[in-house]
Amino acid sequence: MLRRPATTLSITAEDIASYEDRRAREAMLRERQVLLEAQQAQQQQRVLLQQQQQQHAQAQPQQRQLQQLSSPQLQQRHARHLEAGMAAEDPEDGEEEEDDETHSERQQELLRRQQEMMRAQRGRGAAAGLQTTPTPGDGGRGGRSREERIGVGRRGR
């Protein structure tokens, strides 16, 4: 029975650098996706809040009209109508609005922090020059660029 020689794989520094670059791009895409999702959620909450404000603004004139009516029968009829409308709504709306407001404030704070982090990373990236791979746990490589890691332009070393 014939045996073939063992297959050997050679991984170059360029392969490692391209892998790291791809992982960095994927991480940046994930961050962007999270940021977009947060922005969309914030936009949806704004729309819901505006709709709720419009509903409350429409309900206030009805209450004023009720106060201005002089006939007790009309007041009773109007009161029954408003109570029926309020009964259809969730009785804990006030608490949910407070929760929505605190939730939207948290979302805005989270979004603001993410934007600050992105700005800070952009600022550091411009200062670092040729560094293309952010490596927080860089394994002792320091702040070397991709070209420095793979040895481009080094002859005789």
Describe the protein's architecture and organization.
Residues 48-76, 117-129 have a biased composition (Low complexity). This is Anaphase-promoting complex subunit CDC26. There is one protein chain. With 157 residues, the protein is an all-alpha fold. The chain has a domain at 14-68. The protein has 4 helices and no strands. It has helices spanning 13-68, 72-88, 93-128, 146-150. Helix 1 (13-68) runs antiparallel to helix 2 (72-88) and helix 1 packs antiparallel against helix 3. It is elongated and about 105 Å long. The model has no long low-confidence stretch (mean pLDDT 75).
Salient structural properties:
single chain; 157 residues; mainly alpha; 4 helices
Strand content: under 5%
Derived from helix and strand composition plus strand pairing, the structural class reads mainly alpha
The low-confidence runs, each spanning 5 or more residues with pLDDT under 50, are none
**Helix proportion:** over 70%
Largest sheet: none
Quaternary structure type: single chain
* Separation, N- and C-terminal Cα atoms: 45 Å
| CA gyration radius, whole angstroms | 31 Å
SS field, number of helical segments: 4
Q: What is the overall shape?
A: elongated
Q: If you average the pLDDT, what whole number results?
A: 75
The SSE string, one letter per element, is HHHH
Number of strands: 0
Organism: Colletotrichum spinosum
Pfam families: ANAPC_CDC26
Region (Disordered): 48-157
Protein name: Anaphase-promoting complex subunit CDC26
